[in-house]
């Protein structure tokens, strides 16, 4: 029994208990009713009377020692957290990770959607991998139109069916008109692809938002008013717009819209090439052939469409000089927009 007492003493001496939970474990193991000391006391009863004196002393000393150890451990652990330190990963970096920022294209896309949804437009989406019908034929592109050329369009398969990456979001117009009867009032944001050499000013993919409104008695004046409202909300209440005649196979008449240059206020500067105007979108009245192709009666309904490039609007708002920055995803560039939202 003497040896046992010695062994327990050494064991207790070596115990480390840094946190309250461990100290409690120590107490239960040694000092509780069913603990080691209690069972030694039990054993003590059976020792021969001539050894009782010496063993009794040793046992008392052990008890005092263990109680003292317990008090010291308890005091040291007080105030430490309840978490077991051994479970804390000391290799983790002490600095917190930076919070991500929204991509500038997403910021501007969301702004555009918000402006148009305030005017009653809902969001429609369509696939990026399309067929010839939805991207070209239904939109009144003649069979020999140069946009169909391998140079402009990424084809996935050709003949018998042409499968391709959509070159514009106008394909979502067709898809929506095929499935719904007017009134239709949608904006279609999405990524589009064109077979262009990548440079500061052109990329093989970019983002567009298409707008479409079909109803009875929709006029060019309605289109102009909606676009003016958009331009003022996007670029400020002083913004002026100008519509220049243009050509798209799917609209007639067609126009391109410029806004007054917000750098020089319309006086002329290098940014607007001294014209005072910068082009921002294409638009027009939906061609009756397109309505017919999509199962809508052009005798009853009319409508307008417009399409704008999100990168273009973002460039105008944030003066990004190189289109490639939008897809390189350099965090130093993206962090610049953290405060934008
Ligand atoms: N789809 C045209 C383009 O990609 C833009 C546009 C849309 C023009 C709708 C007129 C009407 O250039």
Number of helices: 12
Q: Tell me about the largest β-sheet.
A: 7 strands, mixed
pLDDT averaged over residues: 90
Helix-strand sequence:
HHHHHEEHEEHEEHEEEHEHHH
- How far the N terminus sits from the C terminus, by CA atoms, comes to 75 Å
The order of strands across the largest sheet is 1-5-6-10-9-8-7
Category by helix and strand content = alpha+beta
Helix content: 25-40%
Rg, Å, rounded: 39 Å
* Residue windows where pLDDT falls under 50 for at least 5 positions: none
Enumerate the distinct ligands.
Answer: phenylalanine
Q: Which strand-content bin applies to the residues?
A: 15-25%
Q: What is the overall silhouette?
A: elongated
Strand runs, count: 10
Short description:
This protein has 341 residues and is of the alpha+beta class. The protein has helices at residues 2-14, 20-31, 36-44, 49-77, 104-118, 132-135, 170-179, 220-235, 288-293, 310-318, 325-328, 331-335; strands spanning 122-123, 129-131, 155-157, 163-165, 184-193, 205-215, 241-248, 251-260, 277-286, 302-309. The strands form two sheets. A seven-stranded mixed beta sheet has the order 1-5-6-10-9-8-7, with helices on both faces. Strands 2-4-3 form a three-stranded antiparallel beta sheet.
Describe the structure.
A seven-stranded mixed sheet has the order 1-5-6-10-9-8-7, sandwiched between helices. The protein has a three-stranded antiparallel sheet with strand order 2-4-3. α2 (20-31) packs antiparallel against α4. By secondary structure, the protein is an alpha+beta fold. The protein is built from twelve helices and ten strands. Residues 168, 170, 210, 248, 251, 282-284, 305-307 line the site of phenylalanine. Phenylalanine is lined by residues 168, 170, 210, 248, 251, 282-284, 305-307.
């Amino acid at each position: 029994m003497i040896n046992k007492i010695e062994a327990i003493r050494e064991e207790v001496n070596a115990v480390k208990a840094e946190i309250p939970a461990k100290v409690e474990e120590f107490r239960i193991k040694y000092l509780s009713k069913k603990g080691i000391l209690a069972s030694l006391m039990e054993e003590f009863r059976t020792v021969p009377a001539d050894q009782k004196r010496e063993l009794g002393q040793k046992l008392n000393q052990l008890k005092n020692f263990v109680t003292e150890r317990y008090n010291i451990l308890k005091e040291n652990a007080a105030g430490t957290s309840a978490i077991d330190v051994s479970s804390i990963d000391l290799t983790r970096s002490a600095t917190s990770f930076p919070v991500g920022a929204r991509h500038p294209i997403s910021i501007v896309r969301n702004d555009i959607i918000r402006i148009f949804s305030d005017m009653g437009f809902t969001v429609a989406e369509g696939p990026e991998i399309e067929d010839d019908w939805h991207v070209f034929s239904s939109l009144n592109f003649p069979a020999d139109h140069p946009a169909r050329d391998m140079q402009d369009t990424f084809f996935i398969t050709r003949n018998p069916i042409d499968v391709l990456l959509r070159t514009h979001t106008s394909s979502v117009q067709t898809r929506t008109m095929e499935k719904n009867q007017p009134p239709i009032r949608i904006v279609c944001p999405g990524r589009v692809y064109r077979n262009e050499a990548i440079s500061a000013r052109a990329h093989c993919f970019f983002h567009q938002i298409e707008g479409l409104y079909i109803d009875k008695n929709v006029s060019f004046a309605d289109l102009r008013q909606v676009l003016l409202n958009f331009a003022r909300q996007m670029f400020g209440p002083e913004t002026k717009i100008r519509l220049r005649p243009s050509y798209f196979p799917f609209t007639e008449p067609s126009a391109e819209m410029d806004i007054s240059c917000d750098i020089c206020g319309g006086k002329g500067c290098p940014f607007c090439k001294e014209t005072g105007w910068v082009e921002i979108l294409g638009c027009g009245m939906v061609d009756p052939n397109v309505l017919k192709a999509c199962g809508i009666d052009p005798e009853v309904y009319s409508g307008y469409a417009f399409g704008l490039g999100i990168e273009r609007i973002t460039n105008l708002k944030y003066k990004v000089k190189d289109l490639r920055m939008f897809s390189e995803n350099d965090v130093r560039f993206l962090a610049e927009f953290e405060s934008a939202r």
